[in-house]
Amino acid sequence: MEKELGFAFLPAPAQRALQNAGILTFEDLNRFTRDELLSLHGFGLKGLRMLEEKMAEHTIEFKMK
C-alpha cells in the first residue's frame, strides 16, 4: 500500500526537486539515499530535516548506502 501523504509541508523548491526525480509518494523515498536527495537541485538540509521528521512518524526509511 502506497503512503500518499504528499509533500505540501516542504518548501516549494524541495517539492519540485522530488517531483522532477520521480518521487511522488513516501514509498518512493526508499529507493533513494539521503545523499542522493541532497544532490537534487532545490533540495537541501532544511527539506531533508523536515522530510525525515515526517518519515519517522510513518516508519518510512531511506535506502541504505
Question: Which overall shape is indicated by the principal axes computed on the Cα atoms?
Answer: globular
Structural class by secondary-structure content: mainly alpha
Order of helices and strands: HHH
Please tell me the total number of domains: 1
Give the percentage of residues in beta strands.
under 5%
CATH architecture assignment:
Orthogonal Bundle
- Terminal-residue CA separation: 24 Å
Counting DSSP E segments of at least 2 residues, the number of strands comes to 0
Q: Average pLDDT, to the nearest integer?
A: 90
Would you state the CATH class?
A: Mainly Alpha
Individual helix count: 3
Blueprint (SSEs and pairs):
Blueprint: H1 12-20, H2 34-38, H3 45-57
Question: Concise description?
Answer:
Helix content is 42%, strand content 0%.
Please characterize this protein's 3D structure.
The chain is mainly α and 65 residues long. It has a single domain, classed as DNA polymerase, domain 1 (Orthogonal Bundle), CATH 1.10.150. The protein has helices at residues 12-20, 34-38, 45-57.
What characteristics describe this protein?
single chain, 65 residues, mainly alpha, DNA polymerase, domain 1, 3 helices
